[in-house]
């Protein structure tokens, strides 16, 4: 899959980047991962037994979404803070946000996406409960402010409602820059006005917790040990921000409905309140805007772009109905 913003590097250049960061290293194997949508990712095995993954950010001059400024810095921060909070993540050997470079351990397991169709309902629900419990540890990392971690301070605010309003405004502006506004169930200015009207509900969140915000099945690695599946680690923290920890559950909008309850049980240890369900619906709206904004910068083919757009239009219709918009 070719994606417009993903850098293209050969093996020699990737090896030079690793040697610049880690010193003299001999390499025994190389593999390029081609299933990502943003960063380049390469695997390198070393003569001293390490199995590494190297991530390289897109060139800074490319047109990206507004929230994607300094995304590598956000991911490095996510890794460092999450590991300190006890979240299972690959070991980070080197992180350089200025160069847009990360070097980490390669995991031994497989993605949940690659095996979920082979799992029984009980196995899958057990993993969902474990994902909920482990992802709840992200909230133990507290930020200095709400919003995205950016050197510019863009979207940073002292309240969650103000940060979320800025984040939603950026996402809406990205959608407006692309060709996908005609299918929206409401005009963009009406959508952002509705989200801004949820200030009191959003400000029930009074501590800026780290939120990974991209724990879809392709970013969850699992391993089978002693006859059972368990979570090995989470990857790809580039969408991370500081806000409502409940937003971690937003990615379940892509999963069957019966998988929400075990995840919530693992995450909260109880059912969601009506207010929490409403906040989660707001975050689904925000994620749909982010995905629609991607369609103007990722270089998808017409069929793929139309598929994603139609899916998100339908998601927005469902959430607006649930919210009473």
Automatic annotation (TrEMBL):
The residue ranges of the Aminoglycoside phosphotransferase domain are 32-266
**Pfam families associated with the record:** APH
InterPro entries from the UniProt entry? AGP_Transferase (IPR051678), Aminoglycoside_PTrfase (IPR002575), Kinase-like_dom_sf (IPR011009)
Origin superkingdom: Bacteria
**What name appears for this protein in its UniProt entry?**
Phosphotransferase family protein
Q: Which organism is it from?
A: Glycomyces mayteni
């Amino acid at each position: 899959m070719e994606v417009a913003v993903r850098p293209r590097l050969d093996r020699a250049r990737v090896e030079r980047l690793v040697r610049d960061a880690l010193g003299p290293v001999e390499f025994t194997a190389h593999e390029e991962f081609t299933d990502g949508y943003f960063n380049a990712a390469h695997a390198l095995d070393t003569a001293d037994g390490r199995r590494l993954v190297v991530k390289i950010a897109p060139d800074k001059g490319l047109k990206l979404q507004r929230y994607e400024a300094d995304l590598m810095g956000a991911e490095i921060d996510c890794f460092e803070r999450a590991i300190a909070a006890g979240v299972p993540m690959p070991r980070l050997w080197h992180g350089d946000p200025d160069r847009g470079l990360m070097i980490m351990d390669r995991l031994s397991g497989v993605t949940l996406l690659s095996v979920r169709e082979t799992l029984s309902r009980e196995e899958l629900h057990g993993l969902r409960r474990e994902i909920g419990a482990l992802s709840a540890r992200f909230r133990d990392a507290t930020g200095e402010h709400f919003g995205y971690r950016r050197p510019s301070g863009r979207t940073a605010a002292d309240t969650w409602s103000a940060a979320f309003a800025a984040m939603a405004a950026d996402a809406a502006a990205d959608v407006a820059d692309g060709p996908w506004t005609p299918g929206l169930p409401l005009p963009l200015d009406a959508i952002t006005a509705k989200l801004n009207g949820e200030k009191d509900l959003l400000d029930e969140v009074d501590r800026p917790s780290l939120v990974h915000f991209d724990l879809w099945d392709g970013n969850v690695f699992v391993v089978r040990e002693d006859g059972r599946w368990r979570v090995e680690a989470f990857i790809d923290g580039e969408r991370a921000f500081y806000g409502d920890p409940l937003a971690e559950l937003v990615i379940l909008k892509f999963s069957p409905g019966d998988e929400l309850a075990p995840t919530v049980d693992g995450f909260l240890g109880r059912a969601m309140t009506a207010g929490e369900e409403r906040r989660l619906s707001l975050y689904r709206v925000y994620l749909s805007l982010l995905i629609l904004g991607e369609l103007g910068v990722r270089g998808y083919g017409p069929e793929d772009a139309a598929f994603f757009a139609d899916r998100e239009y339908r998601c927005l219709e469902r959430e607006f109905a649930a919210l009473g918009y």
